[in-house]
Amino acid sequence: MSVLFETSLGDIVIDLETEACPKTCQNFLKLCKVYYYNLNAFFNVSKDFLAQVGDPTATGTGGESIWSLIASQKGEKAPRYFTPEFVPRLKHKQRGTVSMAVAPAVGEEHKGGCGSQFFITLGDNIDYLDGKHAAFGHVVEGLETLDKLNDVFVDSDGRPFKDVRIRHVEILEDPFDDPAGLVVPDSPPTRPPDNSTRIAEDEDPLETLPEEEAEAIRRKKAAQASALTLEMVGDLPFANVRPPENVLFVCKLNPVTRDEDLELIFSRFGPIMSCQVIRDKKTGDSLQYAFIEFDKREDAEQAYFKMQNVLVDDRRIWVDFSQSVARLNTSWSNNPKMGAPMGRGGRGRAKGGFGGRDDLEATTRYREQSQGPGDDYGMVFDVPGRSHKSRSRSPRRRERSRERPRRSKSPRERRRDDGRDRDRRRSRSRDRRSRDRYDRRR
């Protein structure tokens, strides 16, 4: 009467002493039949001594007999263990002896005996186990598997660092009738019964990947760590957020390039929902980069390939897909226009700002005011009903300013203002030439 154990280290065939130990062998075979030992881990391995298995919890305190298992499935109570069968001629002399682990008696309620745990000896002449644990079989095939099991690395408690599991059990011959109430599952389990944190039995910790795959894995882990860091500091709403696929980032712009110029140039690829040159909050000077949002992702991809390194206002621009995701987060922006529609009326406005910067959230775009051609700059997305001038001066402050005499400008200030006017006139002239060149190309 034999049983085949397919383990993660190899196969083991065990012959059972069914005539000398009928109750022990019946318990063992029926537990094998209900897949009780499938995916169990060897939780105690001592070199040249023994390898213990049969506890689903892999702690050394679990396991029960087949009769206790049947009773528990019915909601009834039965003794957890049965009385061990000690046979004087069955001793622990040879390596590969299979023996039931005998639990000691604790008090009157907990009587000792045999449950489901068993062990296989890994050395010869271990005679001090005779009379303490009940031998009932021996290994006839798979001694090389026992050699591998004897050489595994274990911790201070004898648990292998890499799990060694019984993958499958095959009963080669069973002479016993099934106990009353025995229910055989339709299929063996697919998940281990214990919650092991060790190296998995099918995992190779020393396996090396090709350099390209290893580099890709390292970059992916580094990106995940960076995203988690940005989430912790508040720059990302959540770590798994992805940047929009229809927004382009354009940099290396000429300081004189305006929103209208970029929109005119990029509009040939498709409808543009937003075109915005980012400018300094105080001076209104261009920061020489912009964000362009297309209606469709395909249009953004086409513009990305066609406009790379193109000459715009005597500058070769750089185009890339936007990596900003701040516009997806609507809970930490001070922009009063948050949530406004993104049509033509909201051109130059990307919801949520860019990169989580407060200055760009509050001042998304500047344009020339109607006071004079190129005289001053104003914010498009100010608080409704309040211009930048009315916000900077309260009525009382304006009244005080009328009472104070106006200070005449110094020669240095007049030269500075004349230079600014001259620069604005040159800028408008260059803008007109750029539009004319573009119109001629079209």
From TrEMBL:
PPIases accelerate the folding of proteins. It catalyzes the cis-trans isomerization of proline imidic peptide bonds in oligopeptides. The lineage of its organism: Eukaryota, Fungi, Dikarya, Basidiomycota, Agaricomycotina. It comes from Polyporus arcularius HHB13444. Residues 178-204, 332-442 are annotated as: Disordered. PANTHER family: PEPTIDYL-PROLYL CIS-TRANS ISOMERASE-LIKE 4. This is Peptidyl-prolyl cis-trans isomerase. SMART domains: RRM (SM00360). GO terms for molecular function: peptidyl-prolyl cis-trans isomerase activity; RNA binding. It is found in: Nucleus. InterPro entries: CRIP, Cyclophilin-like_dom_sf, Cyclophilin-type_PPIase_dom, Cyclophilin_PPIL4, Nucleotide-bd_a/b_plait_sf, RBD_domain_sf, RRM_dom. GO terms for cellular component: nucleus.
